[in-house]
Design goal:
Elements (H helix, E strand, L loop, with lengths): L10 E6 L8 H11 L5 E4 L3 E5 L2 E2 L6 E2 L5 E4 L16 E3 L18 E2 L8 E2 L6 E18 L11 E6 L7 E6 L8 E19 L7 E2 L1 E5 L2
Antiparallel strand pairs: 1-3, 2-3, 2-6, 4-8, 5-6, 7-10, 9-14, 10-13, 10-15, 11-12, 11-13
Length: about 220
């Protein structure tokens, strides 16, 4: 997985790897991360492990990162597998609350370092919606949302819609009354797969913000 800019701010610990180990650095560092209650991503070189606390879900892919090593998210069996259809796609919104929160594009980055209450996205008070443009009409079965550890109470009374308009005319995939726990990853899915170009999150309410860190879309 490619780590976002600023990921090193969420580095918790760097541990040396013993030359006497007979298992791979990937395996060694994965075990160390899995044993840590706050590690969500691990990076490794031939000589060290880096344990990181990021908002992330398992990608199953290791690649070059900003930390100069290979990185993977800790696998979680309860989450869907396959390609994240939302990764690095266009996002439609009307700005953030007071223009001081993370941009909407960070919600489809696949990982996010959250050190302060402004490091994740919160919508403008007059537009409680976030729309991901998948680029073409696509089957959608599951939407994962990882909420903020600071502003999680601002993700509730949310309707997830899928369709080709990106508006309230699209079909409802799932609803979420909330509230979630701090930093929780929510699995939002309906009883059937829907088809559409746009996946939209709408929060019901007047003069309230919609806050989240990551949104991911899957066909299963």
């Amino acid at each position: 997985m490619i780590l976002p800019s600023g990921a090193s701010d969420c580095l918790q610990e760097e541990r040396p790897i013993s030359d006497s180990l007979v298992v791979t650095p990937h395996h060694t560092c994965g075990i160390q991360c899995a044993k840590s209650p706050t590690c969500t991503v691990f990076c490794y070189t031939d000589t060290s492990c880096q344990l990181i606390n990021l908002k992330a879900v398992a990608s199953g892919v290791a690649s070059a990162s900003v930390l100069g090593s290979h990185c993977m998210a800790v696998s979680r069996d309860s989450l869907p597998t396959g390609t994240d259809l939302a990764l690095n796609k266009n996002v439609l919104d009307e700005g953030t609350w007071l223009d001081k929160y993370a941009a909407s594009t960070t919600t489809v980055s696949g990982a996010r370092c959250e050190k302060t209450d402004q490091d994740c996205y919160c919508s403008h008070l007059n537009s409680q919606r976030l729309v991901v443009d998948l680029g073409s009409t696509t089957p959608v079965a599951t939407v994962l949302v990882t909420v903020s550890s600071f502003n999680h109470e601002y993700f509730k009374n949310v309707i997830v819609r899928v369709g080709d308009t990106g508006t309230t005319e699209d079909d409802i995939l799932a609803t979420y009354p909330g509230p979630p726990a701090s930093g929780e990853t929510l699995t939002l899915k309906g009883t059937t797969t829907l088809h559409g170009r746009y996946v939209s999150l709408f929060r019901n309410g007047i003069s309230v913000s919609l806050c989240l860190c990551l949104v991911q879309v899957f066909t299963v």
